[in-house]
Every structure is written in structure tokens, then in C-alpha cells.
Predict the 3D structure of the following.
Amino acid sequence: MILGVILSLGSALGTNLGFLLKHRGAVLAPAIRLRHPVHSATALFRSKWFTIGWLVALVAWVLHVAALAVAPLSIVQAVLSAGIVFLAVLAERFFGFRLGRRQWVGLTITAAGLVVIGLTAESEGPQRTSLAALIVAESAILLVGIALVRFSTRHAIRQRAEALILATAAGVLFGVSDVAIKYLTQADAPLLGLLSPWTLTALISFVVSFYASARSLQLGDAVEVIAITSVAANLSAIIGGVLVFGESIGSGPLGIVARVLAFLLVIAGAALMPAPVRAAPITR
């Protein structure tokens, strides 16, 4: 459990540093066109900042997978919510954003939620997996994510709303991928498990979320967009952990109430992160 928390914290730091670097590169790249995915991806990676951010995010993803292999999904996602704290500190100290009182209140609430989650964590035995719940949950969440991406293409939607919708879609799809990866790490034969249809599910979610996230970073304010993506990913993955893997919400009435309130505090803390003042333009 402790190792999983440490790996999750490392993943949270890397993920949000990677997001901020990718934002710096994405705003310098040509607008993403879904009808030209290869050209759009190539243009993104021609920006050194986006490439560096993607590599940092890749390392964070490896830490994330390692955490999923040794800790319950709900615990991993809850700890990853600490990334909201890392996000704000990194954004203000190193990326030229200024955060106001409301943002720091959000950080405090998030930190409080994480403390409660840590204090109420308990060791669990082997997890049971419901294949039926996995199919239903993954299919439903995947469809929601794709539907949000499709909805964002409507011409009547304003740019800021489009950014938030795409950020939500990217987060939901990240959650789909997390649940699928967690399922694969629980397989009796991991190498054979890579041939599972859930590998394809994770890949589809990754590809769609890649473009959705990059486009949201091009359109929206970095801290706001990243925070929304994080909340959507954490919420969908935590729900998946409870429904698919039968993870405990808490031990006893008090523990259950405390953990539910803690999860809500983490989410509320992210929701209090309004758009910051944009940083000065960055040169290549």
C-alpha cells in the first residue's frame, strides 16, 4: 500500500509537469484537425516543449501502471488528486501563472481530503473482479467520452466551453484506460493478458484522449483545463474501482462517511480552480 502511494505521488508530479510542458508546446503548434490526425500529431511533436512534456508524462504513466499493480485503484486515483497541489505550485513558480485566493482554497480542500483518505486507508486482500461490471462500466464510460468529443465539434459552442468539454472527455477516457490497465495487471498471465480486448480498449481510449487533451490545452487556460481533466479521470477511475473490482469505500459507517466526504473534498478542491491569468508568451 505504501509503495503504491509513493509511486502514485511520483506519477502525480510527473503527470502535471508533463501537462504544463505540453500546454506550452501545444499553444505554439497549429490547431489540431481530427480529419488529419497524423499531420496534427506530427505538428505537435515538432514543438520541443510538447515532446519533452510527452516524455515526462510517459515516465509518469509508467509509475502509474506500477502503482496500479500494487495498490487498489481507488487509492491510486485519490493520491493522484494530489496532482492538483503540484499543478498549482508548478504553474505559479515555474510557468508564469498567478493563482488567487480561490485557487489556494481549492488546494487546501484537496489536501484535507487526501489526509482523510490516507488516514482511513486499510489493507485489502485479493480483489475480486466482475467481468460483467467491467464490460458495462468500460463501455458506458467510453461512450460518454466519445460523445463529449463529438459534442465539442458543434459550431455553436464557444471556445472556452469547447476546451472544458474536451478536457472532461480526455479525463473520462483516461479513466477508462486506467480501469482497463488495472484489469490487465490482475490477470493470471500478464503477457497473455496483453492480447485481451481490454488492451484494445486502453489503446482506443489513449488515442482519443491524446487528441482531446492536446486540443483542450490549445483552446483553454492551462490550470483550469488540467484540473478538469484530473477530476474527470479520478472520478471515472474511482467509480470503476468500486464497481469492477469491488474495492471498499470504507470500514464501518464512520469510515465510509469519512472517505466519501474526502473524495468529494478532493473533487470540490479541483472545482475551485478557475481560469488563471495567462502567462507571458513563450518562444520556441
The chain has one domain: 2-271. The longest helix spans residues 159-185.
